[in-house]
Amino acid sequence: MLYFTKMQGLGNDFIVINNIDGDVSLSTEEIRRLADRRLGIGFDQLLMVENSSLEDVDFRYVIYNADGSEVGQCGNGARCFARFVEKNNLINKSVIRVETISGILELTINHDNTVLVDMGSPVFEPNNIPFNFEKTETEYLVDGQRMGVLSIGNPHAIIHIEDINSNDIISIGTKVQDSNYFPESVNVGFMQIINSGEIYLRVIERGVGETLACGSGACAAVVHGIRLGLLDKKVKVHLTGGDAFVEFDGKNAYLSGPAEFVYEGAVNLRTGNI
Questions:
Q1: Is 74 designated active site?
Q2: Which of 16, 62, 74, 253 is catalytic?
Q3: Would the pTM of this model clear 0.70, i.e. be above it?
Q4: Residue 163 has pLDDT above 80, yes or no
């Protein structure tokens, strides 16, 4: 049996698996089956808690999208990860350092059970995103859409729009993801600015589709808005699933918000019975 905990951060939902002993190994097809909301458990991402071999790092934080692909960043998942290791007595401190395939994250559990995530420094150089463009710009014209492009562990394209309820968001987002400009695809965020300290945001995530919230997407949107001179360094981000708070100090982006437990369960990988 595979034991898991269902969690969510602003409606971005996960299953979290304790793999400290290293005895859980899931194939791409098994992850896809588990992610199926009709025939499996259903989730946006699967998170693994593993041991880290790095000095001064507490855990390895492994993230799989619903399509089975491993990704380097998930801010909402990071908050759930921190609450999970605390609740399961895997650690006895409030500041946790974890490694992902994109780098090191620092997670701070607050007294109100919200979690602050140091998401690290955004990357703007096209080759390092990756993004097939010759030089770094504040905005780019891609297939007729003007957008900011950057990475915060994952590649993000941010499109500034006037109406967050536009019917064109899904089709535009899918078209951008399929563009040859993005060799590893891209998360596409649509940002409507309310004022300099507040935005609406919807995100079409690669390998998942539109989610109720995307933490790294919230950070990418705020950083892009600051680069355009339209946002302050502290911004409230209204996502479909709730509100997150992002701060950018010119070097690192910080994300804070809730992380909630939903239920615990077990699944038989052979039969699919939960």
A1: yes
A2: 74
A3: yes
A4: yes
